[in-house]
Design brief:
alpha/beta; binds 4'-phosphopantetheine; 5 strands
Length: 166
């Protein structure tokens, strides 16, 4: 069975990687799919986000990294996937995810959205909080894949060099 795991991944965190790894054990193929969201101004370009995901998931043979623009369900249909995988961290995620799952179900009733509970250790992690930490010179080791840490260090080199702590 083929699943799509969509997100902005700006950048991918270890919380995302945990969901990808677990989804890869459940489904034959998982398409990790980076959204081009015109409503958001990303820190990393689409190519950078995809490249980081490719490195971070290199050890998982049944993962493919893709991108999409527009409706998620159209990407899912075009790739013949049956399931959308989403991670849930807290109740605050639920309302928005519930609405999107129902809308996608209305658009394509044969596709299921399946939720995975984020591991306890990652429940406080988000791309936004990681970016803020890095921007303010904090240490992101253990919160993001190594490749993402390197990119954040490069992006915020001045802050890292200032010797501030996380
Ligand atoms: O990582 P994010 O930003 O929470 O990911 C959200 C994303 C990109 C998965 C979601 O916004 C999405 O599916 N966008 C595509 C547009 C769409 O299909 N919306 C739902 C039906 S209107």
């Amino acid at each position: 069975m083929k699943a799509v795991y969509p997100g902005s991944f700006d950048p991918a965190t270890n919380g995302h990687l945990d969901i990808v790894t677990r989804a890869a054990r459940v489904f034959d193929t998982v398409l990790v799919t980076v959204a081009r969201n015109p409503a958001k101004t990303p820190l990393f370009t689409m190519d950078e986000r995809m490249a980081m995901l490719q490195v971070a998931t290199a050890g998982l043979p049944n993962i493919e990294v893709h991108s999409f623009d527009g409706l998620l369900i159209e990407f899912v249909q075009a790739h013949g996937a049956q399931v959308i995988v989403k991670g849930l961290r807290a109740m605050s995620d639920f309302e928005n995810e519930f609405q999107m799952a129902l809308m996608n179900k209305k658009l394509e009733p044969t596709v299921e959205t399946m939720f995975m509970m984020t591991a306890n250790a990652h429940s406080y992690l988000s791309s936004s909080v990681v970016k803020e930490l890095a921007r303010l010179g904090g240490c992101v080791t253990g919160l993001v894949p190594d490749v993402v840490e390197e990119q954040l260090k490069t992006r915020f080199a001045e802050e890292y060099g200032a010797g501030k702590k996380g």
